[in-house]
Amino acid sequence: MRLLEEKIKNEGRVINDNVLKVDSFLNHQIDPQLMNEIGKEFARSFAADGITKIVTIESSGIAPAVMAGLYMNVPVIFARKRKSVTLTDYLLTASVHSFTKNETNELAIAGKYLNENDKVLIIDDFLANGEAALALVKMVKQANASVAGIGIVIEKAFQPGGRLLQEAGYRVESLVRIASLEGAKVHFVE
Amino acid sequence: MRLLEEKIKNEGRVINDNVLKVDSFLNHQIDPQLMNEIGKEFARSFAADGITKIVTIESSGIAPAVMAGLYMNVPVIFARKRKSVTLTDYLLTASVHSFTKNETNELAIAGKYLNENDKVLIIDDFLANGEAALALVKMVKQANASVAGIGIVIEKAFQPGGRLLQEAGYRVESLVRIASLEGAKVHFVE
Fold first, then answer.
1. What ipTM was estimated for this complex?
2. Model pTM?
């Protein structure tokens, strides 16, 4: 997605060989016009898949997921990061470790919002090691719903997440794929 | 906002006299079409105010704020809830206590995203005691930016937040105002 590549080139900050910060338009400040285009792009990619629900994770997945939901005309569910499990409702759960932040979170989705008839599109802001996407896959499967695909805004293609998800049989559509962050520069996959 | 009142009547769950759950379209599952209409409504209300930025809090404020940002054509910043202050960047900060969840969070916004020329619209999902909105006001003022108004999706008008904010001189626009939750029923302000 050309518009997104330009935005990353102009505003992304390479922190080290593994970490790209895009706080000015995705992870802290959000560019709504860009999110709107991202939503349209996901809707185009998965137009033929009969998607019934979108699932993402708070907080940075919400903006792109809601825009995709708008154009696909389906509800969006965001998995909550939780400290403790105190709710009495039936919950779908998984734990996920973020290597970037070096913290483990419990994720939860209320069971009533997914069922075996759902065809789910998983959307997330970044794909690196695949931990977050695999946790969402696990929760969708707990509900006996099916995963129709995984939509990623920015894939760090030099990390193993994309390969792992594809080897597990999931279709992954990344709007941009980064080959490396070496030399404090963003190199996109050709 | 009639559409939102209908949604609350049909899907809102009154937990007790103080707590209304709207997990099916705002706080966990999100209805993107409804968020789109909410965004348009906020854009209409504040069309004459020269808004340059929208500020909200993760996670439930993000969807309505991003839709408002789309129609107002301005960036959206979401304050992050933080456990600890370890970043070295200049931060705007405030602490906020949630009575519903009985927890206190530190909020942070990177200082570089707000400056003294900004006219800020604060958006949040609920207004009850006003703690969250006042914390956002405090952060906007730390940046010497001005608060042009506060847009609320659901105001619990039987709690003091709306009055407190208005007495402090802020314009509050709530899309729906709830007079009481007594008798396990939602009574709207006429």
1. 0.96
2. 0.96
